[in-house]
Recover the amino acids of this structure.
């Protein structure tokens, strides 16, 4: 369970800010039972990235081991997706107060569309929204997450992406990247992303693009891409990207969910249609993972950028990357140990 009363220093100050804005949700999901008691420590043998239980077939495990991702068809119901969509629209219209969230918008469209989904590209860190955070607690999702993290599961990072129709400037293109670049916790093998399509995703509207097998490579240096057009804040990409590396476009139908490793190189193209491409996702990690110091690593500049954003938003001082992640993190199954 969370030991909220034991925090001190920057973490306590940042927590006090958000506490005063909204009550926390973590305790509401602290007693979800586990479906299989498996260790979060990598097991000896042929499988390095998945854990032993009766959920994944041998073929599915081998596919993830080889490729770094696994697509499960029609995992999330149409009813749940419709509820998430309605809540997103309410957030766009400012009918919902969402403390702690980062809402990314195309300000150039506000004069034309006002407060609507036509303007909002992403809602990040929605852990304070009871309806959207329900995605992170869905039994059908956690059943698969446990195959990668073990029974003690933390929801670490949440996003609802509303990929807007784009132009030649590729404003909403997310360059190829590795999610571990953003995370100051390890081991990588006990972290997994669950990404669910809220409508059909294909090459026309900017589906996910992955480079199979790249989860076996080390974390690469990231930064803002040198290209024409505006780069979204924190949309970092691999600096020495190999554009000739084989890629797979993940065409997905509504409710399809892909689970992928945080070192898998992936991104998404632009939305060439007149509609939106919505998806909802969460990065999960075993609570047995531990925080690392990113100073003097390729992640150091990310820490500075993120701390600066938090400082401007909440007027805080002496905040560290670990403090920020302590706020995002919520226990969704089992016991909270390190994270």
């Amino acid at each position: 369970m969370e030991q909220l009363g034991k925090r001190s220093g920057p973490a306590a100050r940042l927590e006090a800010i958000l506490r005063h804005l909204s009550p926390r949700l973590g305790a509401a999901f602290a007693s979800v039972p586990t479906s299989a008691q498996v260790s979060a420590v990598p097991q000896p043998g042929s499988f390095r990235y998945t854990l032993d239980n009766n959920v994944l077939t041998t073929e599915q495990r081998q596919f993830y081991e080889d490729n770094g991702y696994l697509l499960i068809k029609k995992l999330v119901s149409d009813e749940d997706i419709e509820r998430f969509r309605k809540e997103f629209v309410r957030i766009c219209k400012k009918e919902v107060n969402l403390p702690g969230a980062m809402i990314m918008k195309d300000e150039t469209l506000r004069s034309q569309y006002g407060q609507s989904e036509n303007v909002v590209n992403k809602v990040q860190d929605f852990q304070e929204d009871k309806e959207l955070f329900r995605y992170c607690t869905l039994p059908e999702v956690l059943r698969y997450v446990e195959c990668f993290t073990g029974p003690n599961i933390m929801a670490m990072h949440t996003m609802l992406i509303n990929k807007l129709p784009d132009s030649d400037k590729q404003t909403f293109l997310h360059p190829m990247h590795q999610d571990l670049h953003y995370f100051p916790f390890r081991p990588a093998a006990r972290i997994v992303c669950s990404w669910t399509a809220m409508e059909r995703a294909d090459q026309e509207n900017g589906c996910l693009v992955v480079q199979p097998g790249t989860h076996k490579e080390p974390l690469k240096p990231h930064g803002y891409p040198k290209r024409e057009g505006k780069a979204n804040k924190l949309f970092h990409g691999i600096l020495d990207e190999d554009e000739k590396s084989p890629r797979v476009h993940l065409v997905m139908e509504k409710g399809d969910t892909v689970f992928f490793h945080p070192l898998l190189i992936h991104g998404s193209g632009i939305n060439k249609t007149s509609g939106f491409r919505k998806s909802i996702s969460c990065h999960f990690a075993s609570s047995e993972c531990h925080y690392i110091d990113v100073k003097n690593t390729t992640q150091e500049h990310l820490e500075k950028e993120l701390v600066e954003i938090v400082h401007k938003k909440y007027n805080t001082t002496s905040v560290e990357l670990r403090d920020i992640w302590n706020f995002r993190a919520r226990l969704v199954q089992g016991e909270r140990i390190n994270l």
